[in-house]
Structures are given as C-alpha cells and as structure tokens.
Amino acid sequence: MFSLTAQLAPFRRLLTPRRSALALALALPASLLCTLCAAPAQAALISTDACNEAALSQPFLAWGDANSYELVPGGDFAGSLEGWTLSGGAQRVAGGEPYDVDGSVGSYALELPAGGSAQSPYTCVDAAYPTFRFFARNESLLSTIAVEVVYKTLLGPVALPLGAVALSSQWEPTLPMLTGSVVTGVLSGGTAEVALRFTALTGSSRIDDVFVDPRMH
C-alpha cells in the first residue's frame, strides 16, 4: 500500500520550521515523484474528480484523443481576456482554428510576435495526470513557442519550463503536455492551481482554443 507519510518521513528531519512546503517539494527525489504518479486512484491525497464545475468536452476526438477537457478561461479568445496577462506585443487577432472543436468556428486567435508572451488565468487540476493541449500555427518560417506551467504556491508563482513546440503553417493541435502538478497537488490536498504561459521564441505564432484535462484517468 502506498504511504505518502512513510515516503516523506526522511525529509521531515531535514526541514526546519522556517522552511516552506515548496522547499519540501523541491527536495523530493524523482523516484518519489514517479511513485506519486503511479499511486492508485484511491490514495488519500490524490483526487480523481474534476476540480471545478466547468463544462467538459472531447475537443481532440478527431485526433484520437478521447479524454475530456475544459476550455481554459478565455482560451478561445472570442470574448473577454480577463485574467490573461499579455506582454511583448501579444494581442488578439481575427481568424482562429477552423475545426469547430468548441462548438463554433474560431473567429479569433492570440498572436504572439517573436518575444511576445501570454499567460492564462489559473485553473484547478488534479495532482496525478492532468494534461493540456491547444491549437497553434506559425506566421513565419521555423516558428516555435516555449511553454511553461506556472504553479500557484504559498510563496507566490513558480514557473516550470516544459519545452518548445515546433509549429507548421497550418492550424494543428499540439500533442498532450503534462502540467506536472503532482508535487504542488499533493502538498495542497490533491489539487493544484496552475496557469499556462506561452512565449514565441523564433518568429510570430498564433494559438487558439487552449484546453486542460483537469482530472486523473
């Protein structure tokens, strides 16, 4: 039987009262993270339900992904961008992905010029296997987007780079990407608040319909 208490016992002796929960999270070895990821669904600190009441759909079913996702707040860029943080010339523009995955053909997208960045509002995900996907295309040759997940912690936002997404000239869904929320989720009762940050590295790019899978399967 998986016991988080037993796994964490050796680390408690290393912590002084002034050290934060984040320090503990950063001290966890990779083997423990793998153990947490493989923990059975009934493990006490791992939630298996959606964190909030957002509507779920299967926007990537046509691409062989039957998982249920929720649209990140403002993630279709058709309405208010309240909660989004834009910098470096990032802006909403006309023309989005053409696949009707959210019930309407995309009228708008988010344009990221080289060096431009956008961060989504925070949303709740479970601690085990939450993933996210979005649609993207390049506006110049060899465009790429760096993707980060930003955790909301007691010490403030903590960003973790996930890598770069290479784009094509046509709208395409990205591959599923893990939010990696297992550590912060376990430390906060099984769920975590995460935001997604997108930064154009080489050339201008566009993104649309940002979805997150909020729960373990």
Can you say what the CATH homologous superfamily is? Galactose-binding domain-like
Order of helices and strands: HHHEEEEEEEEEEEHEE
How many distinct domains? 1
Q: How many helical elements?
A: 4
Oligomer: single chain
> Got a strand count?
13
Helical proportion? 10-25%
Distance between the termini: 20 Å
CATH fold-level topology: Jelly Rolls
How would you summarize this macromolecular structure in one to three sentences?
With 217 residues, the protein is α+β, with helices and mostly antiparallel strands. The protein has helices spanning 4-12, 21-27, 30-37, 182-187, and strands spanning 70-71, 85-87, 91-94, 108-112, 117-119, 123-126, 131-138, 144-153, 156-166, 172-173, 177-178, 191-200, 205-213. It has a single domain (43-213), classed as Jelly Rolls.
Question: Could you explain how this protein is built, in words?
Answer:
The chain is of the alpha+beta class. Helices cover 14% and strands 34% of the residues. The chain contains four helices and 13 strands. Strands 1, 3, 4, 7, 10, 11 and 13 form a seven-stranded antiparallel beta sheet that branches. Strands 2, 5, 6, 8, 9 and 12 form a six-stranded antiparallel beta sheet that branches. Strand 8 and strand 9 form a beta hairpin. The longest helix is centred in the N-terminal third of the chain and has 9 residues, at 4-12. The radius of gyration is 18 Å and the shape is globular.
